[in-house]
Specification:
The protein is mainly alpha-helical and about 270 residues long. It has twelve helices and no strands. The chain has a single domain, classed as Glycerol uptake facilitator protein (Up-down Bundle), CATH 1.20.1080. Helices cover about 75% and strands about 0% of the residues. Belongs to the FNT transporter (TC 1.A.16) family. It is a multi-pass membrane protein.
Length: about 270
């Protein structure tokens, strides 16, 4: 699979973070829009498989097809830039400042959200024949997911909020490993294989992904889910985003950077 050594692909991670900071605003938003839209479609794909087969594992095994498509096209997810762009600042790349990192995060957030909402509207029409018939089984499943992953956490109060945060951390640990997977090989098949594994893990274990939720919950609201916009924002999106930030930076970005770029000198044994 034309595997690259860690010192090589971690440098590519830093270079990628720098390039995203310098990318034009239009390109940043367009690429983020397409990433949000493709990931949303992959969620529908996985949920449809789960509903039609009754096998959640099969849905998780096939969900990464969307992630692989969007990263092969060099589109950007918020979870990926959470991990990559701070590395360029940490590496003291010229012109990379905290305000520019935050601006990039904001633009990618807007693009991902717009893409996810677009597919949410399209799929709500698709599930109901233009709102002329009752919601089909896949749509009902998505609506109930929205209820369980907002009100279900709300029932536990602060403990539920912290659980969301932790699941957001674990999610972007795995998703960021998928982003890195796109850099560990110079062949398309090698990239796909390396991306597939951690994305399958995150999806099957039900960890919380901020961009996936930008699609699931608005669609659930459109289809009549029994929760509110406020429930979604406070009892899912906010702690999920914070967890995604912490997990991506600390569990993937900093660990790889600290041991493969800022390596510690070997101590000589006398």
């Amino acid at each position: 699979m034309s595997y690259l050594e860690p010192a090589e692909f971690v440098k590519k991670m830093v270079d990628s973070g720098e390039s995203k900071i310098y990318m034009g605003r239009r390109d940043t938003i367009v690429r983020a829009y397409m990433a949000g839209a493709i990931l949303a479609l992959a969620v529908v794909f996985a949920v449809t498989i789960t509903v039609n087969t009754g096998n959640a594992l099969l849905g998780a095994v096939l969900f990464p097809v969307g992630f692989c498509m969007l990263y092969l096209m060099k589109f950007d997810l918020l979870t990926g830039v959470f991990m990559l762009t701070p590395l360029a600042w940490l590496d003291k790349r010229p012109g990379v400042t905290i305000p520019r990192v935050l601006e990039n995060w904001g633009l990618v957030f807007i693009g991902n959200l717009a893409g996810a909402l677009t597919v949410a509207v399209i799929m709500s029409i698709n599930f109901t024949y233009g709102f002329s018939v009752p919601v089909n089984e896949v749509g009902q499943t998505i609506a109930h997911v929205g209820e369980g992953r907002t009100l279900g956490y709300k029932e536990h109060g602060f403990g539920g909020w912290m659980t969301l945060f932790i699941r957001g951390c674990l999610c972007n640990w795995m998703v960021s490993m998928g982003v890195v997977g796109a850099m560990v090989s110079t062949s398309a098949t090698g990239k796909i294989a390396a991306m597939w594994m951690p994305i399958m893990v995150f999806f099957y274990l039900g960890f919380e992904h901020s961009v996936v939720n930008m699609f699931l919950f608005p669609l659930g609201l459109i289809l009549g889910g029994g929760f509110t916009l406020g429930d979604y924002i406070f009892w899912n999106e906010i702690p999920t985003v914070l967890g995604n930030i912490v997990g991506g930076i600390s569990l993937t970005g900093l660990t790889l950077y600290s041991t493969h770029v800022r390596t510690q000198a070997r101590r000589e044994i006398v």
